[in-house]
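Researcher: Please predict.
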Amino acid sequence: MNYKITTYGCQMNENDSEKISGMLKELGHVSVDDENRADMVILNTCSVRENANDKFFGHLGHYKKIKKEKPNLILAICGCMMQQDSVVAEVKSKHRHVDIVFGTHNIHEFPGMLSDHMEKHEMVVGVWQDGGEIVENLPVDRKYDFKAYVSIMNGCNNFCSYCIVPYTRGRERSRSIESIKLEVEALAKNGCREVTLLGQNVNSYGNTLEETIGFATLMRELAKIDGLERIRFMTSHPKDLSEDLIEAIAEEAKICNHIHLPVQSGSSRILKEMNRKYDKEGYLKLVEKIKRRIPEVSLTTDIIVGFPGETEEDFQDTLDIMEKCRFDLAFTFLYSPREGTPAWGRKDQVAEEIKHERLNRLLEIHHRIGKEINENYVGKTVEVLVEGISKNNPKNLSGRTETAKLVNFPGDASLTGEIVKVKIIQAKTFSLDGEIVK
């Protein structure tokens, strides 16, 4: 069959979709970009945002019409939303045109569920509430040959009061260092130049393993692999970022000078309400330590605006931390209540108009700082891993520096996957323009 996978949400979901595609290709099925050519559609869902549910059920209504025209079309839904009992119950009662439902913990069962559906011609539902052991050696259909996502752990133990992830991804489980090394070694042998290590909190890698192995040790071991040129990681929790990791980044040339370090709020009071386990002062000290040891570091973050109970004074602390940390990039979000989390249903919700007004003030500072940081690159020559044709200009290529800066420059598509030297000639708020140095 021809199949089309649509992925919503984070890099973990993207990696899961690559595994689903790998299993299907191993069975002889064919991936297509055009959904109109698909015999099977798989929706890999995300539950982080409040409006995700509305959008998702809207999409299901769309497929109900399509299945009337193509009754043999197989519709499978998976991902984080399927770990919510209320969502699965609604699918089973109101969306009988869905054929297969599975969750985040049992994607390896999908081929069997597909076989069951094709044999019985009825809805097949399989959602594990707990993760169990991580299933190794699943086939992976990588989007790129030259860069890859590698999950090093599943789940999260932090239970931030706004976050649904521990409930949809389960408790923390780390893969063995041997299995990760084997995967990365195989990637490097096949021409992969850059890997991004994934986990909800990579800094706590190894806590569930019998042997004492920390994240910094894993990074140093991977840096020894021949052929691999860049190692990235996300996401880092500030409360667990160790001296050892800072030293590993500073000392190992292959580990990129980029740390994604979500602060979420600049207010110590709000951080406590969020159950983040650090305060404003501690975060600022950590950033100071990082920048002192790794002067060229690029620091990016996540910030939530309008958490329940956030006052103007709390928000001023967020603006202050933005000025003091001078983040290269900040992913900013309006607080979105998620049913089942401790913050859901609180009576002290911030009005939507106040959230939007605060977000605009935050973005104004963010845009100014981002442009100022990028202007420091003008005139410098940087190494860029070419990712392909620019989305905004077909005459340009685009790629990223080791500090994760997006660079656009004229060049031939044959350079895709290569690391080239580019002189920066213009700075923009979120990207750089340059020209190849020969």
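Model: Residues 352-375 form the longest helix (24 residues).
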